[in-house]
């Protein structure tokens, strides 16, 4: 679908997300043949900057975040010509006149309001947009996470934003859904017949979804202390990935058909009780250790940290889906900071063979598994047992690997590029619907309540490890192991 002319209004235009991700993504899109001449970017911020000063900030902060092989000075110069800057107080409706003057007076023009700001500003900005007469029929609003701190907060955001924009105008963004490997998971499942007969409880042993970071909280202590790993990563990224793995085939690829199936998964997640929480949820916090050979402080010793903080930097959960397809198949979700490696992956592990016909104990056979790598390199691995070269019949685990960079030999779209393109096209498939958001919070909220009532510290784990030992025990009780623990030694 070809793009039409648009005004893209970026609230928080001087912020970290804008400079690291959004501006580089818009620049990359501007180099495409289908990008319209009339596509303009209007950055909005509280700084009293001129347009020239803002462009200088883009050169200093955004330009270095563009990959070297994608940076073209002529294209960057042309992109800068599209950019304007407006200074206003987003919370004060009386300051929106400069924005109104910067926008083109054409109700048929696509307008995008991207709110790269804290969620407590969402309602006020949307109301001020409406009071300024800028909520046109072709307007769209993009909401960045976190979308509330709990179910009540999420419902309030949905209600407040919904007073100004219809559901079809609201784009709740989760950048993990824009990753190439996630798109290929959909293609793998619904574009091939090979896995569909096996994609069920009779053949799959377990599913593991991991998002691990080597980094600590950095300069985000203020945000992270009020969020924690569960709100920051599990409630959105991990649950969205679980939905795509577990959803039934939609009737077609239209937005609501896909999102209907994801919603069914969220509603089928088995609810936690206080007793099951103790058994199936692990909360951790990193202490001092070494990452890549460099000594790093514990969370409580990071700059501006609360020395008695109980905020979790690691969470592992055993989830179960009460449906015909998935009954009895555990889904293990985990995420953490200061982990042993930087990776995001989905591991679909199949059941073991029932009997060995070889002169080799069945315990030496690794189950077949499909590994979908999201980062650092996107690709697919299918793990199989194969005969080693030479005399005799000795089997060993081998990989069939698909590396997207090597296979397709063409530039990839980064996650934000794809999602921003979908926003400009009005394509909602990869964005959460309000009932999806609320269903995710309904499942997560008992964990938060339990932790609030519990008078215990998180379990401490050494920075540079794979998290608390209790996370291994969580999966070990089912006779299973996390992928890195199950891999045979070389």
UniProtKB/TrEMBL annotation:
Top-rank taxon, per record: Bacteria
Catalyzed reactions: D-glucose 6-phosphate + NADP(+) = 6-phospho-D-glucono-1,5-lactone + NADPH + H(+)
Record domain Glucose-6-phosphate dehydrogenase NAD-binding: where: 9-184
Binding site for substrate: 175, 179, 213, 232, 337
Protein purpose: Catalyzes the oxidation of glucose 6-phosphate to 6-phosphogluconolactone.
Domain Glucose-6-phosphate dehydrogenase C-terminal: 186-483
Positions annotated to bind NADP(+): 46, 145
EC number: 1.1.1.49
Alphabetical keyword list: Carbohydrate metabolism, Glucose metabolism, NADP, Oxidoreductase
Stored Gene3D superfamilies: Dihydrodipicolinate Reductase, domain 2 (3.30.360.10), NAD(P)-binding Rossmann-like Domain (3.40.50.720)
Annotated active site: 237
Family per record: Belongs to the glucose-6-phosphate dehydrogenase family.
Enzyme's top EC category: oxidoreductase
This protein's name: Glucose-6-phosphate 1-dehydrogenase
Pathway the protein takes part in: Carbohydrate degradation; pentose phosphate pathway; D-ribulose 5-phosphate from D-glucose 6-phosphate (oxidative stage): step 1/3
